[in-house]
Amino acid sequence: MNNPDYMEAKKYGEDISLDEELYRNLSGFHIKSLYGPEDIPKFDYGTDLGLPGEYPFTRGIYRTMYRGKPWTIRQLGSLGSPSEANRRIRQLIQMGSTGVSICLDMPTIMGRDSDDPMSEGEVGSCGGVAIDSLEDMRNLLEGLPLDEISINFVSNSQSPVILAMFVAVAGEQGIPLAKLNGTMQNDILKEYQAQKSYYFPPRPSMRLTIDTLRFCSENMPLFNPISISGYHLASAGATPVQELAFTLANGFTYIEEGIKAGLSVDSFAPRLSFFFKAHNDFFENIAKFRAARRIWSRTIREKYKAEDPRSWRFRVHTQTSGSSLAAQEPENNIMRVTIQALSAVLAGTQSLHTNAFDEAFSIPTPRSEKLALRAQQIIARESGVINTVDPLGGSYYIEALTNEMESVSYEYFREIENLGGVISAIEKGFYQSAIADSAFKYQEEIEKKKRIVVGLNEFVTDEEMDIELREPDPEFEKQKVADLTALKKNRDLNVVKTCLSEVRQVIQGSDNVMPVLIKAVKSRVTLGEIINVMRDIFGEFREESIY
Amino acid sequence: MAGERKKRILIAKPGLDGHDRGAKVVARALRNAGMEVIYAGLHQTPLQIVNTAVDEDVEAIGLSILSGAHKTIFPKVMSLLKQKGISDILVFGGGTIPKKDWGILKSIGVGEIFPPGSDTREIAAYLYKVL
Amino acid sequence: MKKAIRVVIARLGMDAHWRGSVVVARAIRDAGMEVIYLGNQMPEAIVETAIQEDVNVIGLSTLSGNHLELAPEVVRLLREKGIRDILVILGGTIPPDDIPKLKAAGIAEVFGTGSSLEKIVRFVSGSD
Amino acid sequence: MSKLFNEDVVEEITRKGDRWQQSTGHGGKANDREFRTLSGISVEPVYTPEHTADMDYLRDLGFPGEPPFVRGVHPTMYRERAWTMRQLAGYGPPEETNKRYKLLLSEGATGINGIFDYPTLRGYDSTDPLARADCGRGGVAIDTLEDMRILFDGIPLEKVSSSLVTCQPICNITVQSMYFANARNRGVPLDKLTGTSQNDFLMETCMATAPGVLPPKASFKLSCDAIEYCTKHAPRWNPISFAGYNYRESGCTADQEVAFVIANAIACSEEMVRRGLDVDDFAPRLSFFMNGQSDFFEEIAKYRAARRVWYRVMKERFKAKNPRSLAFRFHVQTAGVALTAQQPLNNIARSAYHALSAALGGAQSVHIDGYDEALCIPTELSSITALRCNQILQLETRVTNTVDPLGGSYFVEALTSKLEEKILMLLEEMDGLGGIVKATETGWIHGKIADAAYEYQNDIETGKMPVVGVNCYRMDDEVLPIELFEVPETAKVQEKRLKRIKKERSDSEVRRALDAISRCCDEDGNLMEVIVESVQSLVTEGEITEVLKDKYGVWNPPLF
After folding, report:
1. What percent of chain D has pLDDT over 90?
2. Which pLDDT tens digit goes with each residue over A153-180?
3. How many domains does chain D have?
4. Does residue B3 sit within a domain?
5. In D, which residues are within 8 Å of A36 by CB distance?
6. C40, C64, C93: residue with CB nearest D375
7. Which end of chain B, N or C, is less surrounded by CB atoms within 10 Å?
């Protein structure tokens, strides 16, 4: 079939390159004006797409997808103090949220107690919950049906301790470990690559991750011990195809490390889940998910020899792009979020978080959070897009884009392999420079108007909208520090000492760290105390600055 | 301008969070605009930042803060500079800093604040103008 | 045998949207009541028809925004003629703030966008 | 032959699909509801090449800008020119609306979409006793040529494309004539004017129906007069926009929407041919106004199917040769009826994806509803937000990068063919009834639409059709924080102006103008030819209407 080349695009003004850039997607792929059968020349339905719920899962990981069960609506439910967060979570559940994500405050993320000098001014920051001790976890989860509602802890470097606390509270509530639902983000690799909330060097961190993986695969079959996150890579500047390739490469690394540690691939692969960002580029975003499913299933099956079909499934949580929201004319963000959410749904996500429209400049209000939730409900209930699986399957554009996403990913895999794998690539600064390059290029494109953000660099209005922050409340910080001081006074110091020396011992050895951590948190040892012991032994990681 | 020493700027990311995208983009943009940029990286304490500024003999310090701790960190940096008797280093900021706080920061001597969405060319132009 | 409830349905003034009024008229008819469908009319004509046809209920519909002017007028004209046993109800695009004003003017009930037929029928048939 | 898959492949996929289907079941484990589109088409759990096996690429899809135009009416579509962003604007007296036009144009709107108040649409003057409560509501009030002058004051008529939402021929014949007369007075030749007038006889007889409207035949004649006039004098003006939007708002289904606009266009084309015009002279200027309803994929398939059907109709029935005659061009407005008064900001999310479906369906222009539409006339904030939605779609989502991005999707292609089949069936049925004018006279169309509207409402009430905030996820303690729009004083302004005009104009000129119209009716001439001249005498719209109703009589639509 002859394909007319319609690339005779109109030239605007003096900046001719502008026009070509317009026809690239966020990953920089050149987009043709028309896609037809000739753009998927070697297309083989059975091999490339197959049927939903079947290998290679391109069309979706479940047979009937949303016809059988809608995606999980998972909104963020954290706020300052653990008991406030608890109230917020209950509200979200009442409004129809079926899962909740919990963020931590900066000190907790950095493994510091609220009374640590480094924590000053940041307790309860960024809308996160401050978790020092088991007491806090107990308040956070009080009365929540942990075996029904799916809780996602946005927790990384400190995950072994948070997991230990979660396990301990579930035990207090009488819920068997085997019934515990939920997810621990626990993705340390992307911390070094993008999010930068690491403390130990990559290799010891990986060992802790594998400990949690092993513990969960042995005791908590319904729990997702790692949510391999591309979202943060994308937020730091990675393009969609980098997000795809780097995230999958991280996933393969966890698989390899797990296998190296003696776990059978089918014992933990089914519980690995992923976390993607829904970008502004509608179709590129959809292609990213489809490519991810195909690459994951093929690699896990063929390279890592997994036999359980559940290991082949790429399960993913999605969040709309916070960084695409504008502080100018914030109502416009409802629209952005809706389109991004729709693309995630057409892409077959398993759960979805929609951002609040006022998030770019203020603390989301209950009303704006409700609206964000409603956008999902409208897509689910009104738009009819859930009626059939992978509605875009077969579209020449989508299939060609999916193929290109896949092949560019393989180029990245090769590049990472040549650097000696993901951890070596981190140590060599590969991700830092790749992501910094993309971030800088994006900024340049915005400034040269090669990329448009309505209200920011086009159709700019004078509307003044001040940023409002979830500012840490100094009173809350004082209270939290006082509570912690009281807790530290009222516990058996000898028991604490014993626990900490047990932690030290197990860290120096090679046994799984989880049992001693569970014991320690039950004895009111704090998160900061445990992490400090680990810091002592593992040392701290400092990255070389590349920009 | 030939022969004139390049402007030396320290870019730092104080506080605990790791959102260094903005700081890095600005660092690169300033470098491309012909300045000497020292990027101090993540998780710097005010004392570390001020020491680096002195050691590296910079003319300006740019602090990127997204955690909401700006009202703690800027005053600390300013008072440390004062303690060391340094008055000729310009301090400017970026990140999520509400406009309502700008007045407070400027009153303690902070030069300019660049909110999200700022054009990096504006930042460079500002520095060339002020320094 | 009890006489069927008679209802006149009219669109107030010049409002062009008939979907709501026709759907409601059908639902009322399907519920066993008698419906006289008037189309667009001004208050005088609506009241006149209502009296001639000996109806129990006047159902008004408008989406154009003329409700504050015309709906109370229907009630006023009825009262002027000494009629108090004809119920006047109103449906359409009605800003919430206007509802108390309309009720104060004698409109028995206001059914805004999104009201269910079942609710309207129940109200009209008097079983509410 | 350009079959997409060879038979062996399809056979194998079908076999696998059957096995998959058996092991999967119906696909509604969690609930046993049926999976149907908004218009009631049954949807399969998965679509594969099996469902498009009969498709022939060149015959059924082709290339954009080429027959059968399914992939789009232009070769490069939005890469070359993005769809026009039209935002409806109109309220109060003309001086107020003039301000809103200027605001929207300065904010980046690329065309004007003027709406008129209820009295104007009905052909009444603002001072008519029937008009007193509706003057300035729902649109701008226009009584005489002077109002038209004020409405477009300071707006470059030769540059801005104007869409006059005149709805019904009774209004259009006068208002469009005023627009043209005003252009001439400003020295803009008619052949420089670009724009559209709505002018759809079904609007008068089936949609915006009131007792005592013009009978279908007369209304249809007025509509055809404007088409003929524009073909001869204003070749860049689209003299009719078949108002599928309003059919759909009134309740009909997606396939009915398309079938009714096309049947209407067939009737107009037959009449034009009868009047001696060449199909390729008028058909390129027939345009369509469609509704962006809430079933995302059905809407996309609807637009694609409409292009395929229109191509075949123009090719086969009218032997059109000009590609522009064969290409179905359309404007979309997002569905007002799908918006809710409850939790109004939710409507931004709704309109957002309604508009996206229009873009993916290849619309030529798109209007996005204000989120407060179910509560009041859009405020400034809601109109700007709606415009921004359009801009974000064009500039940020990058769905404009390639033409017909969904082309080839098994689901979209299968749904397109299914809709085509249903549309053709309806067209055949209407042919059997003697065409759309007859089908209107007998009330057949009214019945179809009312049935569908009733079913739609019942589906909402039984919960079969979920509407967030209405029959699910309701909030009991909802406060409506949005600021509502207040219509500015209109009746007094218009009354004052009209009084002055009536005092100042020449009674004998008015008499002569009205006589000319009356004579033209008697002689069955083209009324627009006469009215474009008549309005110069400052004769009012109401006065013209009176003559027309006197000559053609009135009709009560069989609505209920």
Report:
1. 65
2. 999 999 999 999 999 999 999 999 999 9
3. 3
4. no
5. 57, 63, 407-408
6. C93
7. N
